[in-house]
Amino acid sequence: MIEQIYNYFTIDILYYWVNIGVLPFWLILIFFPRSNLCRYFVTSIFPFLLLSSTYVFILYKSHLNSFDFINNFNLYIGIDELSELFTNKSFLIMFWIHFISINLFAGGWIIKDSEKFMINKFLLFIPLVITYLIGPLGLFVYWIIRIFYAKNINLYD
């Protein structure tokens, strides 16, 4: 049975499961940001345990397939080397999980930070959607909204 599960979770299937699996977390963040469900289920460690487990599983599968992990450091040499790394599905899915995890963490941080300044939850809709799609830009939009509620510009909070 474990062999069947292992064979079922190919890189392509994991890609679909990760993308579908992260949607409930984002829907809760966007539509129910101040609920207990969001507090205990989304902004906790739970989604990151799931994504980390998937990441470790992909690392394990990559190790069994003789993936050259040392070659990953070539991404710092130049854009062409990074582009070459993205031709490998294992590296690409690891990068994608990394990207999804950071965006989800940023979305959770927006919710927790907005509670400190009592920012209207309807104003959070736009930055959260943008954070889901384009992480850093969503954080910037939230920061602009936050300035008006905090009544000051704080670059280190």
Name some characteristics of this structure.
single chain; 157 residues; mainly alpha; 8 helices; 0% strand
Summarize the structure.
This protein is mainly α and 157 residues long. It is 73% helix and 0% strand.
Description:
The chain is mainly α and 157 residues long. The protein has one domain. Helix content is 73%, strand content 0%. It contains eight helices and no strands. The radius of gyration is 18 Å and the shape is globular. The model has no long low-confidence stretch (mean pLDDT 86).
Number of helices: 8
Q: What portion of residues is helical?
A: over 70%
Number of domains: 1
The unreliable regions are none
| Major β-sheet profile | none
- Rg, Å, rounded: 18 Å
Helices and strands, in N-to-C order? HHHHHHHH
Arithmetic mean of pLDDT: 86
- SS class: mainly alpha
SSE layout:
Layout: H1 2-8, H2 11-31, H3 36-42, H4 46-64, H5 79-85, H6 89-116, H7 125-133, H8 135-150
Helix pairs in contact: 2-3, 2-4, 2-6, 2-7, 4-6, 6-7, 6-8, 7-8
